[in-house]
Amino acid sequence: QVQLVESGGGSVQAGGSLRLSCVASGSPLSRYSVAWFRRAPGKDRVFVMGIIPSGGSTRYADSVKGRFTISRDNPKNTVYLQMNSLTLEDTAVYYCAAGARTDVAPESYDYWGLGTQVTVSS
User: Fold this and answer.
1) Dihedral over Cα of 31, 4, 1, 112: its sign
2) Beta strand segments in the chain, E
3) Which of 70, 10, 67 is nearest to 37 (CA)?
4) Are 27 and 1 in contact (CB under 8 A)?
5) Do the beta carbons of residue 99 and residue 111 sit within 8 Å?
6) CA end-to-end span of the chain
7) Residues 65/47, Cβ–Cβ less than 8 Å
8) How far apart are CA 66 and CA 60, in angstroms?
């Protein structure tokens, strides 16, 4: 079992930056691929970025290319999502998820956090 807790969300103006953290407990996060998903108001949960256990390879949605970066610190059991050049469309609840492989489908992940709200204003 893995418990995931997200933090770092908040309110920011368009063009600003935030860094989200996902801290795991209960099992070494190094065993899992980890991804960030987001759910905007009235929309489905969608894949944002993912990273393999070693951190050597990442995957991202086109909407965040060049603006978001995912990284991990396995000794700290933590995965980060650095978000730059935020736009109004980035407003959502952001969730981290852990699973056996990096995939865009939420069903591929076994463990989820409760989410952290990111609100971008003009």
Assistant:
1) negative
2) 3-7, 10-13, 18-25, 33-39, 45-51, 58-60, 68-73, 78-83, 92-99, 109-112, 116-121
3) 70
4) yes
5) yes
6) 40
7) no
8) 10
For the chain, what is the largest distance between any 2 Cα atoms, rounded to a whole number of angstroms?
40
For β-strands 116-121 and 10-13, DSSP reports them as parallel
Q: What is the pLDDT of residues 47-81, one digit of tens each?
A: 999 999 988 888 899 999 999 999 999 999 999 99
pLDDT in tens, 95-106: 999 999 999 999
Q: What is the DSSP letter of 22?
A: E
Per the document, the length of the chain is 122
CB-count burial class (<10 Å; 0-12, 13-18, 19+) for 102? buried
Residues 6+ positions from 28 with CB-CB distance below 8 Å: 74, 77
